[in-house]
Amino acid sequence: MTAEDRARRERVRLEAAEMFAAGVSAPVVAARPQAQGGATLDPQVELERGPAARGWDDQRWTLARIAVVIRELFDVDHTPRGAAYPLHRIGWFPRVPAARAAERDEEAITAWRTEGLTFQSQYAVVASQQVQDAGDRLGSAPGGPGKG
Question: CA-to-CA distance for 64 and 40, rounded, in angstroms?
Fold first, then answer.
């Protein structure tokens, strides 16, 4: 091991000791990535800057975009699914926003729900009547239930 490697290892050890003293958990300390040249990068800081800071038009982090960022920062290739693993280690999980259409018509939705419930109620009444009729037919048949 060269003197430069020993110095880098000592620097990493001291950074880890500081993180432990600050109350950071062992898995988080172990998972902190090293950028090219040995500098420690915090991926959370990069993610919190947002996709727009890296040139994307909207504010959505996709796994494919995160894989690109990991490649640029750490020179490590990941598939989009593979990019999810380090994210989970630092506590980032997918959140899907409630996407609603811009042309959403609340009145039409309410009417549809009411019609749907009315249809379901009518269906339940018809089905109940059919079951009752079938039971009546069985009960009136010779040797059917209730007929000794």
Answer: 23
DSSP string, 44-56: HHHHHH-GGGGT-
pTM for this entry:
0.42
DSSP 104: -
Per the DSSP assignment, residues forming a β-bridge with 40 are 34
Q: By the 8 A CB rule, do 51 and 60 touch? A: yes
SS3 at position 34: strand
How far, in Å, are 23, 35, 44, 49, 66 from residue 78 at the CA level? 30, 15, 17, 21, 9
pLDDT in tens, 88-119: 877 787 776 666 667 777 888 787 777 765 65
Instruction: Specify whether the CB–CB gap between 58 and 50 falls below 8 A.
Output: no
- pLDDT digits 0-9 by tens, 122-137: 566 666 777 777 767 7
CA 9, CA 100: separation in Å to the nearest integer? 51
Percent of the chain clearing pLDDT 90 (strictly above) = 1
